[in-house]
Amino acid sequence: MALRIKLARRGSIHNPVYRVVVGEARTKRDGKYVEWIGTYSPKAPHGQLRLKLDRADHWMGLGAKPTDTVRSLINQARRREEKVGAVDEASPTLEAEATVEAEATVEAEATAEVSPEKEAES
């Protein structure tokens, strides 16, 4: 039994929605499948893609081969995940830097306000 990770079409006329499924290679496009691991809607803004990458890795580890289209969708999902991870990791750093800059600005303003008073008293 050769397994493939492939697209099964759902949706209506001129509005396709695909399920990313794991099924036997010889079954029909919309036939029986073993597991449903995601969805892809090409008409949605930015091609809405939801994919369980851990399940895809699991099935590929067991010998399931993705179709060319599904392989590109998996790569796209991985890039999006890395980008989101990079933004999440960078956000606290940027917030911390902004906080330090804000504190430095407040201290500089406080110092600037104190200096003219000291000069007036002198």
Question: Could you describe the 3D structure shown?
Answer:
The structure is a single chain. The protein is of the alpha+beta class and 122 residues long. It has a domain at 3-84: Ribosomal protein S16 (S16 Ribosomal Protein, Chain: A, 2-Layer Sandwich). The protein contains two helices and five strands, in the order ββββαβα. The protein has a five-stranded mixed β-sheet with strand order 4-3-2-1-5. A hairpin with a 6-residue loop joins β3 and β4 (48-51). It starts with a strand and ends with a helix. The mean pLDDT is 81.
Helical content class: 40-55%
CATH C-level of the domain at 3-84: Alpha Beta
Report the end-to-end length measured between terminal Cα atoms. 93 Å
What ranges have pLDDT less than 50 throughout 5 or more consecutive residues?
A: none
Task: Supply the helix-strand structural class.
Answer: alpha+beta
Number of helices: 2
Write out the strand line-up for the largest beta sheet, numbering strands in chain order: 4-3-2-1-5
The CATH architecture of the domain at 3-84 comes to: 2-Layer Sandwich
Q: What Rg, in angstroms, do the CA atoms define?
A: 27 Å
Strand proportion: 25-35%
Number of strands: 5
